[in-house]
Amino acid sequence: MSARPARVFARPVSRLGFHPVNFRPPFEELIQEMKQLNAGPRQNSRFTLIVKEQSPLGATAAMIMSILGLDYRVDIENVDFDIPCLDVGDRNEHNFIHGKNILTFLIENYDVDCKLSYPAGSQMNDIIRTRVRSLYHLMDHSGVEAGSFVSLFFGLQASGTQWMVARKVTLPDLILMPHIYNLYGQLHVSAIFDPLDDWCDRMLFKPTVRQGMMDVGWEFEYEGYYEELATEWMPRRSNRPQPRQN
Description:
This protein has 246 residues and is of the alpha+beta class. It has two domains: 24-113 and 206-231, 3-Layer(aba) Sandwich (Glutaredoxin); 117-168 and 170-205, Glutathione S-transferase Yfyf (Class Pi), Chain A, domain 2 (Up-down Bundle). 46% of the residues lie in helices and 7% in strands. The chain has helices at residues 27-38, 56-68, 101-110, 123-142, 144-159, 171-187, 194-204, 207-215, 224-228, and strands at 47-52, 72-77, 85-87, 96-98. 31% of the residues are buried.
């Protein structure tokens, strides 16, 4: 396998790599998700997501639809505000859902197999709602970057797993992904803190996550790298300064 390419921070950083202890790529999961992306037709729903380019909330909505296998398209508008709009109507009548309501609408109505949630009324669903309220509160009062970082840090600690809630990707992970991804680009670093680095690697390893983000305008350098990981794994080489040897 060729040497890992240098990370490019233009829009924003496309950071990759895997911690040799905490994470090994779930190859079977990768294969299943790639099959889902290439399978057709998808569910008989047609949505139009209207967003600002690289909208974090729009990216979360697109990731949800990509993971759930919904048939959708994205219209990127040149606007200053970031309030995505989802048209769930048909050709004869438009029906718009705005902002954060899009996320709730999609999961409550189309996550029938609980890919991103847990059965209604379960304790795990209550935890998901609590995490979502908490992270939005932190982002509103501490700033998007600081609030996202703190939410992910303490969320991973509280869950004790690789994700924000239990053992699979749920809504809090998808909400935080665009903000954490932006944070790496703004700081111009390839690593921040091992648990966060590993979480971001696991998210980017999912084809449906990358597809949703690309649909809203993100670009990933060297896309073929992900496919190479399916046949060969290499640990992340940290770019952090090493202690001086006496």
